[in-house]
Amino acid sequence: MSTKKFILTERDIPTAWYNIVADMTNKPLPMMDPKTKQPVTEESLQQIFAKELVKQELNTTDAWIEIPEPVRDLYKIWRPTPLVRATGLEKALDTPAHIYFKNESVSPVGSHKLNSALAQAYYCKQDGCTNITTETGAGQWGAALSMASKIFGLELAVYMVKVSYHQKPYRRSIMQTFGAQVIASPSMSTKAGRKILTDTPNNQGSLGCAISEAVELAMQTPNCKYTLGSVFNWVNLHQTVIGLEAEKQMEMAGEYPDSIIACFGGGSNFSGIAFPFLRHKLTDGKDVEVIAAEPASCPKLSKGRFQYDFGDEAGYTPLIPMYTLGHKFMPSNIHAGGLRFHGAGSIVSQLQKNGLMRAEDVNQLEAFDAATLFAKSEGIIPAPESSHAIAVAIRKALKAKEEGRKEVILFNLSGHGLIDMAAYDSYIAGDLTVGGVSDEDIARNLKSVEEFRI
Amino acid sequence: MSTKKFILTERDIPTAWYNIVADMTNKPLPMMDPKTKQPVTEESLQQIFAKELVKQELNTTDAWIEIPEPVRDLYKIWRPTPLVRATGLEKALDTPAHIYFKNESVSPVGSHKLNSALAQAYYCKQDGCTNITTETGAGQWGAALSMASKIFGLELAVYMVKVSYHQKPYRRSIMQTFGAQVIASPSMSTKAGRKILTDTPNNQGSLGCAISEAVELAMQTPNCKYTLGSVFNWVNLHQTVIGLEAEKQMEMAGEYPDSIIACFGGGSNFSGIAFPFLRHKLTDGKDVEVIAAEPASCPKLSKGRFQYDFGDEAGYTPLIPMYTLGHKFMPSNIHAGGLRFHGAGSIVSQLQKNGLMRAEDVNQLEAFDAATLFAKSEGIIPAPESSHAIAVAIRKALKAKEEGRKEVILFNLSGHGLIDMAAYDSYIAGDLTVGGVSDEDIARNLKSVEEFRI
Fold first, then answer.
1. What's the pTM value of the predicted model, to 2 decimals?
2. What domains are defined for chain B?
3. N or C: which end of chain B has fewer CB within 10 A?
4. What angle in degrees, to the nearest 10, is found between the helix axes of A169-177 and A140-152?
5. How far is CA A398 from CA A96, A389, A404, in A?
6. How does pLDDT run across A234-267, given as a tens digit for each residue?
7. Which of A9, A110, A178 lies at the smallest CB-CB distance from B376?
């Protein structure tokens, strides 16, 4: 097992988040109002989202956005997180590659999600909110926001995707222990949920659908804003503390990554680790290969289409320019609930369009093979989501071995899997499905969003 | 929430464990062979336990025992652990007390148990073992030893107390993910288990019973030793890294604890945090109040009797001089499975007998009230075991408030409760029983061990 850790002090916690949009030559297209087909205005977004978050969403000029002192102070609860050289995994693979991982699983709620949850709860409080709503897949975001809401004295309602609600009951319990209200989605409590349940009574939910429900509740509740754990620019922004720390830590290790890998659901942990390194690619021409590890069951970057689409199932959000599988896409019930989202967000989509990154997809069995090897060689049981990144890191390390060359690989361990042990049980019992999606399914779903093609 | 952490570097990981017996004026009585009624010999213990562990058990002269380099190196995986000033909890209690906790929950398996698991697996490997056995209650020890066994290439069989096996299925899965074999105890696979199941078919098990089964399997397996996660002197010894680090960290904080609190099952985390501070009480006369937080369902220190007794249900172990409720005592099915042990071990029992420490008992509801307040104010969901320590710390802090005086309180957060969320669910639903034991039950059980009275 690895004992090579690179540890920073509290002084090294970044004082500003990195806004990659400012450095992009080809900036993302603007989000569009579905009714007017015009770029959304600050005012219209502020009906749903906290003011400062909307400003961050639309900021295309400032590369650095100061982290409010109360938020940075709260980061000290668990940050800086360790960077670890995975010597145990390297040995198990017998590879000349050097594998590093940034360990975001050490946060009290078990994932990187707290980086943005604290910021979003803070800004909502600043805005005079008493209540907030959100959606969650596997529950990592919901758990983080429950803790953050408690800190800032906000009442929180979480729509948790039904399949995860049943697969991961302990994450529901964690949210409830922090005092949040958790509703399985689709639910009868919203118009969006009722419609889906009426059309498909056994519907197990998706992130897209849970977002619709959470947005609807926020719109109907006084002093309430909607928050979300991925996809939007401000979430990516807040997560850059991961990569900014990792940059310093790689320097301590005396190496620079040849490749950076992170799992990909809506882009939050991916952007967090990748953007600070992509900054050098954009500004100093320092090369690095950046790979998003998608589930084979929800491969929007690998097999989706770049166009405008809604961020949610019911079509409450603005139209986002992004790689998408269609906002009505219903992924298979894989255990990596955090990756079951149909779209990729506008920044990441633009980066991929411009060839600054690429995606690889991983099926559920390969992800759990990788997870188990990692657990046995590094002592940490990874979240099913993070296991996709591990799987791609292993592919790279084995390729380096085959080609007899050193390669420096950095991946983000976005969370631990201690609440996901039922998934490991299925894997051990040989019951786990491989997952995936047919080309016909993708084509059918994309057909339903033809009208938003660019 | 608290962001006041005191962080050490890898260089600060202790190089030697502290053996408190060397500094005790009234040393513990020797363990006895139940057949000969003579002190046990090194040779007889070595039939069950690794040689070096037996030496540590019987060492009454060396105050410092060097930590083998490979073990100390593995400690770097997660050590040093943080010391945290619980300002969030202080605020919630509105107390003038300063509350500190040593956060042992940050280990990859979620508790302090890894401190001794790595050492025991190392010594068993040194001894030429290919297989080891153990028992586990809530599964914290079993999970830690599963990870340690994987590191040293040992095959591990774990007898997990049946009530916990069903209450905490995810800890079973964690052990299995690391490659261990897990058997619910009492089982039909051993003579001891069969006897209990025949006498009481619905028996939900106890640590004492699981120990019997694990010892029996070890005795019948070639190249196999038995290991255990608490009670014995060497376990307490290995855990002193906790207190040795905490000593340095309290110095960084510029305070010295007036009271030290830890939950108490067999004594491992308690000894770990307390012994290094008791050292000063023994050698420099530096006063500190030391309190063991017991579950009201298993109050051996508060209501047990000091005498010789077996460490296990079937009577395979030597007779240990300790506070006990009788080795056939079957505690109620509280969720703090790690505290369901009938005896206190010889060192702690002697310390209590000599007035160097005391115990308080906590019922299950008070423990979960404390756990939930802690989660909401500090962001960490504590293990049900650790919650007993938090409950006593809260009692102390409220007393200090009542009396209007400052008090410096240090408790050990022995583990997190992320695998124990079913218990929190019961608590939230109002289904949790208060726990406890009647005086008649204790009297009846003590009567059955009259023959071993001192």
1. 0.93
2. 67-110+234-452 (3.40.50.1100)
3. C
4. 0
5. 9, 14, 9
6. 999 999 999 999 999 999 999 999 999 999 999 9
7. A178
